[in-house]
Amino acid sequence: MFAMFQKPKTFKLRALHSEKKFGVAGRSCKEVLRKGCRQFQLPESGCRLCLYEDGTELTGDYFPSVPDNSELVLLTAGQTWQGYANDIGRFLSVFHKPHVGVIQAARQLLSDEQSPLRQKLLADFLHNVNENIAAETRAEDQQWFEGLESRFRNKSSYLRYSCESRIRSYLREVASCASMVSAGAQEEYTRILGRMSQKLKSAQYHGSYFDRGARADDRLCTPEGWFSCQGPFDMDDCLSKHSINPYSNRESRIVFSTWNLDHIIEKKRTIVPTLAEAVKEQDGREVDWEYFYSLLFTSENLKLVHIACHKKTTHNLICDPSKIYRPKVGLKKKRPARKRT
């Protein structure tokens, strides 16, 4: 069997957590392991080799099928290697808790860099490490509040206001469409608007959607303030996995303003015209204004989406005909009393 491996195979070898790589040649797995341990001054007992790419352990049986110049990792007893995922994890840890020296080096590189791609990568890195997510008040993160009115004293209050403003604008749009209703139905349309307005006030215009301090069922973000794109209206998820934390820094706060609360069933094309038509044609029936309220103002019909996932095309969706009017509650007829025999 040893004769099959007369020609040595060459490998690039490194130890775990070491950036240094050495060229090693051997006719068997044991020979490569022995040379590797000697190079890194490690005891052979308990050591083993695995492929850098996916962490597959290199054994005597597997040795013949491994291509020349494959990259190997030398592990000691108790160490593990999962392939590229390990290096990606180390890379992400730099973003999570970057050392001050890493930040300074990135800034220096950015000042000297000419390549647009590398400039973007370095700028994105510095943007991400320049976060102060835990800070909530103006005193803790003054830069975040730059350009905002002094009445906003904490991040949650501003983002709550931002969401309320969006919902208020939807109510104004519904009110502006009163002209779509005939003169005879104006009173009923105005009455429905009043009820919606009262309910919105009691719900504080659903500002909790953007408030990380709100109850879990009432917000669209994590307790830390991370928002995930919910994907286009015709998909269950965001394929690009867009996410953002507007609580982190000023730039993220500004970029978050470009995210949309998208109506799945469209507001202008479908919901408002259907409401106007329902008022006009009610003919003694009662319009279920709370159904229309849920479509216009709540997460039942709203999806938070990154601007790239906000499709401007016609959605071709309609309101549920069975929910436009409230069911009639009829009086139950009394059954005639049974005659005693």
What is the compact description of this entry?
With 341 residues, this protein is of the alpha+beta class.
Describe this structure in words.
The chain is an alpha+beta fold and about 350 residues long. The chain has nine helices and eight strands. It has helices at about 30-40, 85-95, 100-110, 115-130, 155-175, 185-200, 250-255, 265-280, 290-295; strands at about 10-15, 20-25, 50, 70-75, 225-230, 245, 260-265, 300-305. It has a four-stranded mixed beta sheet with strand order 2-1-4-3, covered by helices on one side. A two-stranded antiparallel sheet has the order 5-6. Helix 3 packs antiparallel against helix 4 (about 115-130). Residues about 1-5 have low confidence and may be disordered.
Give the overall shape, derived from the CA principal axes: elongated
The structural class is: alpha+beta
Alpha plus pi helix count: 9
Poorly predicted sequence stretches spanning 5 or more consecutive residues: 1-5
> Quick one: how many beta strands?
8
- Portion of residues in beta strands equals 5-15%
Q: Give the overall pLDDT as a whole number.
A: 87
**H/E series:** EEHEEHHHHHEEHEHHE
Distance between the termini: 105 Å
Q: Main β-sheet, in a few words?
A: 4 strands, mixed
Report the helical percentage.
25-40%
Radius of gyration: 32 Å
* Strands in their spatial order, largest beta sheet: 2-1-4-3
